[in-house]
Amino acid sequence: MNKRVSLIGAPTDIGAGSRGASMGPEALRVANIGPILQSHGLEVIDRGNLSGPANPWQTPVEGYRHLAEVVEWNRLVHEAVHAELKGGRLPILLGGDHCLGLGSISAVARHCREAGKKLRVLWLDAHADFNTSDLTPSGNIHGMPVACLCGYGPKELVEIGGHVPAVSPKWIRQIGIRSVDAGEKRLVHEAGLEVFDMRYIDEMGMRHTMELALATLDANTHLHVSFDVDFLDPDVAPGVATTVKGGPTYREAQLCMEMIADCGAMASLDVMELNPALDVRNATAHVAVDLIESLFGKSTLMRA
């Protein structure tokens, strides 16, 4: 794994249905994400926060809330993440709501095309985020980034990165899913996404789930992890706006992260939807940083 890490703050809740995720980057910094990663021998540079348009908090227009602002934020994220990858560094995007995964992952896909690498995306989330404006009345774009990455969405978003679709659904593995709208579910099946929902994890266990999600990775594969904090059960992580009961326990999440670390292929990371306004004494940020630490090699294993 690349030891040169860059933190990029994206303080916006522009794609969300409630305010507060814009404070996520600072909450992660208060939880000492930089020093903790440095303690594992990583060279960490904090690039500070990107500066994009304010949240106008308006109703949907033609099926989308804040489309122009979402496009601008994702353009900024795309260029920042791509620049770090081009410079040989591992970018960690500190969100912000999960609409920003579109800018981040499209940048990773662009980098992989330029470098001749294969791409695998692990989408750790309670939600599939595969909605379109025809399927959701809210118009909140944080429920649409995976669909946009796969070519389903407005021209302004699907073309970020210069290649449509930015990714193939076959490159994505969704883990922890437990809240999907009916129309969204049909589109997920039509697109051919590989989804390990909570029933699968309950029946087969996190170990088997991760073995399948990480199968066939090789030395020429760039692994991107997009970690929505609502992936976790709300008993573990209450500080998110879109909690869904029945998510992975703390120990299941640790195993997930440790197995990702064991494969050694992770080359970029998103940390999304942390909402300090709904948290208790920054506890969810500390849990998130603890899990991120495991992604970079912290282990509870007592094995030689």
TrEMBL record:
Top-level taxon: Bacteria
Pathway connected to this protein: Nitrogen metabolism; urea cycle; L-ornithine and urea from L-arginine: step 1/1
Alphabetical list of Pfam families matching this protein: Arginase
Binding note for cofactor: Binds 2 manganese ions per subunit.
Keyword presence, Hydrolase: yes
Family indicated by similarity: Belongs to the arginase family.
Keyword Metal-binding (UniProt): yes
Protein name: Arginase
EC number: 3.5.3.1
Reaction equation(s) it catalyzes: L-arginine + H2O = urea + L-ornithine
Cofactor(s) this protein requires: Mn(2+)
Keywords: Arginine metabolism, Hydrolase, Manganese, Metal-binding
Gene Ontology molecular function terms on file: arginase activity
Top-level EC class as recorded in UniProt: hydrolase
